[in-house]
Each structure stands twice: as structure tokens, then as C-alpha cells.
Amino acid sequence: MEVQALLITFREALEALLIVGIITSYLKRVGHREYTKYVWLGAALAVAASVGVAMLFQLVFTGFAAMGSETYLKIGIMVISALLLTQMVFWMAEHSRDMKKSVEGKMDQFVTAGNVAGMVIHSFLVVLREGVETVFFFAAITHGNIGAAMQGWGAATGVVIAAFVSYFFFKGTMRIPLKTFFKVTGAFIVLIAAGLLVQAISMMQDIGLIGSVMPHVYDLTWLLPEHPIDYEHYVRDHGVAPVFSGEVGVFLKALFGYSSMPSLEEVLAYIGYFVVVYLLVASRRGQKKAVVEKPAVASLEEQAKNVM
């Protein structure tokens, strides 16, 4: 859980800090440093609002638990979080290159109009979006115990690393192409999303919401048990210890959705998820290539007409 929390908070906090940093740097560059306080005010209000959302979310989750519907809420959170994480990765991959230009253009409109309220609201919404996403993802990786994720070392470490990276980035001492950076971190986020999807399917099968054609495709308990309890049971039943500890299995399950005895549906969902992601990536690359080649073809046709 802690590693998941670190990756999520690092990614979300960095995105928010980069956008706020772009805004404040632009305001200083154009000679309107006095507006930066309003940007930070909006960001601070968004952080406070995100904490409020976390408390409200926890309250709602507790209510579902009291009604005996906790498991269904967990499954819903996992599925939606997997979709949101995937969408977030694709969104950043597409907009990271033009992020600076887009943000500065919006700020230029606010400065020209002297729209202080617009600056506060814009920075508020930017940071709040990241905060709400973080709360939702924390609910997914902790099965509803958002406070545990917020108080752990993973979340705090992710924020600290994001702050350092953004600081050195804007100081000019760190040269990182944003597109490449988000592509690398996005790969880990996709793995987490796939794990959440598989865990949701496993929970649906546990409560009988969906069945299984083949409950156990293979059994890797002898190599890597899914949990320390599975480790102990294997030693008791076979008289020998598995190759790896159950603690390793717990870590991999929390991070990537590892299962030592997956059902056929879990295996197909895991593989199918990556196939869909690959097809989406290939499709977007094809669309971008077509957009780039179209002006080139038009230019050649125009030259041919001029020659004739």
C-alpha cells in the first residue's frame, strides 16, 4: 500500500505543483509578481477542500459498512479508480507537451482583464482535481481506509519527492522532458490500475457476484505465496517452505494485484487490460501521424500544381 500511495501522491502532487509553478513563473516573468499570492491562495484552499472531501468520503464509506454494503462499494471504487488512473495517464501523455503554453495563455487572459477571482478559481480547480483523484485512489488501494494511506510514510514521501523535483525543475537544475517523465511514471500507474481491476474481479467472485469457468488456472504458492497465512499453510501441508516469503506476495499483490492462484477471468482481465491499453496507444499514435502527414501531403500537392 505504501509504495502505491507514494507513486500516486508523487504523480498527483507533481502535476499540481508543475501547473502552479508554471503559473507563478509566468506571472513573475511578465512583471505581475503581485498576483502570485492569489494563485497560492487558490492552491491552499484546494488542499483544505481535498481534506474535507477525504473526510466526507470516509464518512460515506463508514455508512456503507454499517449497512453491510461495504464490499460492493469497494468493488465499485476499484473499478472506477482503474478507469480513472488509465484516463489520467493518457491525458497527461497527450497534454504534457502543450501544458505550459495552455496554462500561460489562460493566465495572460486573467492578467489582461485583471481577473483576480479567475486566478484563484483556476488554481483552486487545478489542485482540487488532483486532490480528489488522490482521495479516490487512496480509497481503492486501502479498501476504504483513506486515513491509513494519508498517515503512512508513502503519501508523505511522495509529496516531498514531488516538491523537490518541481523545485529543481523550475530552478533549471533538472532537465527532464515532461512527456518522457510522465510516460515512465505512467507505466507504473498502468500496472497499479491493472492490479486494481483484477482485485475487483477477485472480490466479485469471492462474494458470488460472478462465477468462474476455472477458479484456479495455476498455483504458484510453492514459489510465491500471496499472503503470510498461505505461506504457513503450505509449510503445514507440505513440510517444506515456499521459495519466497509471503511478505513479498503481499507487497506484489498490493502494488500490482499479484495472485498465486488466479481464476481464468482474472488472467483474461489482466491480459485484456494491457491489450486494450496497447491498442489505444497504437490508435493515438496513428492519429497523430496522420495529422502530421496531412499538411506535408497538402504541401506537396500545392507544389505540384505550381509546377504545372
UniProtKB/TrEMBL annotation:
Coiled coil: none annotated. Its main location: membrane. Keywords: Membrane, Transmembrane, Transmembrane helix. It is found in: Membrane. It comes from the Bacteria. It holds the Pfam family FTR1. One of its GO terms (molecular function) is ferrous iron transmembrane transporter activity. GO terms for cellular component: high-affinity iron permease complex. It is a multi-pass membrane protein. Belongs to the oxidase-dependent Fe transporter (OFeT) (TC 9.A.10.1) family. PANTHER family: IRON TRANSPORTER FTH1 (PTHR31632), PLASMA MEMBRANE IRON PERMEASE (PTHR31632:SF2). This is FTR1 family protein. It comes from Geobacillus zalihae.
